[in-house]
Amino acid sequence: MYLKALEVQGFKSFPDKTVLNFGEDITAIVGPNGSGKSNISDAIRWVMGEQSSKALRGGKMEDVIFGGTEKRAPVGFAQVTLVLDNTGHLFPSMDESEVAVTRRYYRSGESEYYINRQSVRLKDMTELFMDTGMGREGYSIVGQGRVDEILSTKSTDRREIFEEAAGISKYRHRKEEAERKLERTEENLVRINDKIAELELQVEPLRMQAETAKKYLVLRDEMRLLEISLWLENLEALKANARKLEIDLRNAEQERDEARSRMDALFAENEQFGQRMQEKDMEAEGLRTEAAQLDARTAEQDSAVAVLESTISHLTENIERAKSELEESESRTGGYEVQAAEQDAQATELEQQAAALNAELDKLLAQAQAASEQAGGAAAEAEAFRGKEAIAIAAAADARAEAAAIRAETEQIRSRRMAALADQETAERQLEEQGREAKANRRALEDAQEDAEAAANIISGHTLRMEERKKKADAAAEARVKLTMDVGALDNRIRLLTEMEKDYEGFNKAVKLVCQAQNNLRGIHGPVAGLMKTDGKYSLAIEIALGAGLQNIVVDREEDAKSAIAFLKQREGGRATFLPLTAIRGEELRERGVENEFGFVGVASRLVRFDPKYTQIFNSLLGKTVIAEDLDCGIAMARKYRNAFRIVTLDGQVINRGGSMTGGSTSRSTGVLSRAAELERLNGRASEMHRKLEEAKAAEEASRRELDAAQYELTTAETQRRAAEDEVLRLQGVKNQFDMLLSNLRESVENLTGEIEAIDGRIQENEARNAAAEQTVADREGEAASCRVQAEAILSGQSELLAQSGQLSEAIAAHKAELAAIDANREGALRRAADLRTLAAELSGDRSQKEAALAQYQRQIEAAQTEIGQRRAEQAQLKAQSAVISERLAGISQEKIALEAERTAKSRAGQEMNETLLNLERAASRLETKLTTSAMEEKQILDKLWETYELNHSDAQAQRIELESVPKASRRVAELKREINGLGTINVGAIDEFERVNGRYTYLTDQRNDVEKAKGELTGIIGEITSQMTDIFGQQFKLLSESFEQTFVELFGGGQAKLELEDPEHILDCGIEIKAQPPGKALKTISLLSGGEKAFVAIALYFAILKVHPTPFCIMDEIEAALDEANVVRTARYMRTLADKTQFIVITHRRGTMEEADVLYGVTMQEQGVSKILTINLNDMAKELKISALTVKKAYDNLEAEGMTVTVHGKGTYVAASNTQLMEEERRKEVEADLEAAIQKGRRCGMKEEEIRSLFELIMEDE
After folding, report:
1. For FRET with 654, which of 172, 227, 436, 1144 sits at 20 to 30 Å CA-CA?
2. What pLDDT sits at residue 968?
3. Are 539 and 673 in contact (CB under 8 A)?
4. DSSP SS3 for 1217
């Protein structure tokens, strides 16, 4: 047998499928460092089952898969196939002549193993190679670290290779397997003994419970047949009674329907009366609406008449005021005319006085002329000055007269201005007063309009509010009705449950008797169920946990229990369990850590509420019971705590102490606790529902009141809106009158203001004229004084003439002054007359306007009076229509009274009929209730049949027996119940549980015997295997030691070596010491040798093993790396001596090893990270070339011996260059020619030029 081929794909640096074919000779695998040579030995080790990634020079098993390069993607799996020749049948279990072993590994971590393409286990692979020297623990693969293991300082670490060589690996494997089985057997034996000890504690109690349960089943079966038969008898009686009730009910319903028909007829007639009255009401409502409209129109006419009368009143006042102003204006105009005539008369008189004065002045001027002629020249000159003086005096007199006239005129103008100011002030005061009144009226009008709009908005709001409140009232009424129905149903349910509580429904007869008589018995507290409360979610679990304990009666003392028992015996009331407070003691569960378990709800005694004085009672009943969320959580807790306590789940499943389980479907609303919890919950809801009902009634009443209030507010708002609209009409008429009056007053004020402004202008003009006249007076008087002085100077000495002249001058001056004054007065009088006539004309114009206004006022009064007449006529017509409607309303009222009388009579008849109908309905209801009760009783019987025995009616009929007497059967049932109660707590499951536990106990006892027997057999097998291993290893170790001594001498050329057992008495467990004495040295242990000596000794040991137990093939990975060249050659040659029995595959860098090889595999890495294989058979090449295969190689050796260095160029040409001198040209050409010839002959052998060059390149790199 030998290794025929190795197929590698995706393994480490071999991504592509690579096949290496091996012959029976020595195969050498060469290549530079890192090219992937050792990956071949790793692939062989891996395919033979190696599981350690470290042994494969990796960090994890995924590292054996090609990981990719820059140019190549990673692959998804690694696969290696090993093809072995099996013609010698080294594998006895394999008949094939060729065995292919395959291993495949995926990146996901999955491994696949195949032998001849058949999927196998790793164990099958390991057993295939066991004791063949092959396999991952054999010595057929000597890796780079394997030599170190042989040379390890621990002698015990060397045993594996010796055991494999001795052929006891399979025995050790079997022994270890037997020891593991023995260990498992002992563990099983311990577990079985534990379970048997536990079952021994259960078997006897379960036997007693099973016997009691069997007796109970006999009694129960008898009671079952009797109860079923009694219930069926009762059921038939109920059905017969129900048939009679159905007939009575049909008759009652028929009478009720006939009464209802008569009642419906009365109601129909009553509804007709109601409809007729409704029609009358609608007609009356229409008439009232029409009357209201007529009243509204009448009120509108009244308002309009009131407005028109107010308008007439204001217009009359305006007329009176205008007439008064006209009279005042006429008075003022007449005064102005009289004053103007007086001024004209004064001007005429002044004109006459001026004419007389002019005549006198002419005389005086003539005298002055005569005097001046008499006076001569000087006198003439003086007279000239006198004349100038006189003229100046006259001019001054004229100016003074003019000033006086201006002042008089100014005084008159001022008087007129004062009068105009008074008139203006009066007009402005009237305007202001009327303006305030108009403004107040306007504000009142705006307020009235706002009130009208607000009333309209309020009406809209009230309308919406009334609709909302009506909806609210309807919703409140509907809610009240619904709540009334809900409260009624709730109260009925509470009443039913309360009656059941009072009657102790659900408790057995004995408990009922004791509880009903507790007033006559001392120390009775009541049943356990009545002394506790719990949340609804725990009620089912607590009820199941308590079981029959729910009906246990708590008493003060043992004597009280004794009295109650005597009472039951006296009354033949059955049996009951009593719990004296002075005797019962209980403890809660104290298991550590159970509170932290998943699904733990609580200890049952902590989940109920009770009076503290009952603590011992509930600790006794519930203290050792744990409530769990579900059965899975309960099972987990039971397993962890070895069924040390009872567990009940929230849905009522039970895990009893000891491990038995009870469960199935349960009713969540039939138990006493469930009923109590429901009653408590309903009582809690009842107060809330009654409160909600009262709130709903209050809300309904409040909504009705709100609706009435909204209706009242709406009516009030409509009344306010009508009043506001009337006020708006009245104030609008007043506003129009004020607008006209204010317009006239503003016009008068504007006229007076213009007159005052004109007067002010005249006054300013007169003041300027008066100032100018005063200045003229001053200038002329100064001029006259100057002339007087000059004249006096000239006439000094002519005193008489001067005096005469002076008198004349004075006379002339006086006349001229008087004349000037008269002229000025006359002009002023004329001017004043003109002004007075102008004012009179203006007053005449105002009068025409006022007369026109008077005429307009009068026309408006007449129009208003006409409209008042029309409205009063329309008002009378409306009142007449309203009277007609009132008469009709009175008639309708009489008709309604008559209809109401008829309807009352019909209603009375309807009430009597209703009473009759109610009586009939009560009778039908009673019958229906009886029928329902009968049906409920039938259902209860059927339910009891199902709940108690899980039988329907037909199945129960099949089990029915004939009863001699129903009372006798009832007494027998009572006796059976007493006997059953006398048995105490029954565990029907104990029968099956006993069978199961006893069967398991018997089975485990047999198992223990079998396990103990198997233990003895395994102990014997282990001893037998140990004996065989000892014998085989002793014999084989002696052979190996002898072979090692011989091989050492052959390899070292002398010396001695030996193998020693550290403890010959325990050869299977002791270490193995290697001692060696190379030639010329003392005998030493291997640890004291040099590195090369150690490696050589290890190689000698391997060869010794192969000589004794040759393997089909042996893979050596650079084991001679530490040797010198001479020892390498010795090793290679010695390997040749063993090649006839063992196929060698050597991974090497050394020339001596290559020289002995028959086939060379070159491993290159032309592509980064990817290994390639090049092959050359040196024997075939030598035959073809007819030269030694190493001739060329030796030529290069000679070159190196001469101090040359051989280098390989890229094309594979070898060039030798001297380190000290240049190579001779002839020698170089000769070598190149020989190499070229070798290449040509290699081509003829089928080899490629690149392969030959690469081979030489690899050889040179290894050297």
Report:
1. 227
2. 86
3. yes
4. strand
Residue 389 has pLDDT above 60, yes or no: yes
1005: its two tokens: 């006892």
DSSP 879-901: HHHHHHHHHHHHHHHHHHHHHHH
128 in Cβ contact with 93 (< 8 Å): yes
Instruction: Count the Cβ atoms, other than its own, within 10 Å of residue 251.
Output: 13
**What's phi and psi for 163, nearest 5 deg?**
-65, -40
Farthest-apart Cα atoms in the chain, separation: 217
- Per DSSP, the three-state class of 707 is helix
* Euclidean distance between CA atoms 499 and 505, whole angstroms: 8
Which pLDDT band holds residue 114 (cuts at 50, 70, 90)?
Answer: very high
What is the rounded distance in angstroms from the CA atom of residue 455 to the CA atom of residue 721? 5
C-alpha–C-alpha distance, residues 763 and 409, integer Å: 9
Token couple for 650: 């929230």
Q: 1190 — phi, psi (to 5°)?
A: -110, 15
CB 1254 within 8 A of CB 1164: yes
Sheet holding 18-21, edge to edge: 18-21, 3-9, 77-85, 98-106, 111-115, 118-120
For the packed helices 966-982 and 169-502, what is the interaxial angle rounded to 10 degrees?
130
Beta-bridge partners for 580 = 555
Beta strands per DSSP E along 255-339? none
Question: Within a 10 A sphere around the Cβ of 486, how many other Cβ atoms?
Answer: 14
Residue 962 in 3-state DSSP? coil
For the chain, the 3-state helix, strand and coil shares in percent, each to the nearest 5, are: 70, 10, 20
β-pair partners for 101: 82, 115
User: How does DSSP classify residue 73?
Assistant: P
Question: Which run of H or E residues covers position 4?
Answer: strand 3-9
Q: Which residues neighbour 1154 within 8 Å (Cβ) at sequence distance 6 or greater?
A: 28, 30, 1148, 1160, 1259, 1262
Pairing type for strands 1113-1117 and 1143-1147 reads: parallel
pLDDT in tens, 451-484: 778 877 888 877 887 778 778 877 887 787 788 8
Check pLDDT > 80 for residue 1200.
Answer: no
Give the per-residue pLDDT at 836: 65
The region of weakest confidence among 46-60, 309-323, 1201-1215 is 1201-1215
- Would the CA dihedral through 351, 352, 353, 356 be positive or negative? positive
Residues 6+ apart with CB under 8 A from 799: none
- Backbone angles phi and psi of 308, in degrees to 5: -65, -40
H or E, element range at 457: helix 169-502
> Could you give phi then psi for residue 1032, rounded to 5 degrees?
-65, -45
Structure tokens at 189: 């034996």
- DSSP states along 223-279: HHHHHHHHHHHHHHHHHHHHHHHHHHHHHHHHHHHHHHHHHHHHHHHHHHHHHHHHH
The whole-number pLDDT of residue 199 equals 76
DSSP 8-state symbol, 656: -
Given a contact cutoff of 8 angstroms between Cβ atoms, the answer to whether 1225 and 1214 are in contact is no
Percent of the chain with pLDDT over 90: 5
Contact in structure between 521 and 560 (CB atoms under 8 Å): yes
646-650, 951-955, 973-977, 1195-1199 — most confident range? 646-650
Q: Band the pLDDT of 648: cuts 50, 70, 90.
A: very high
Q: Residue 666's pLDDT is what?
A: 64
1076-1116 pLDDT, tens digit per residue, is 888 877 776 767 777 778 788 888 888 888 888 788 888 88
Q: What is the pLDDT of residue 1204?
A: 37
pLDDT in tens, 581-591: 988 888 888 88
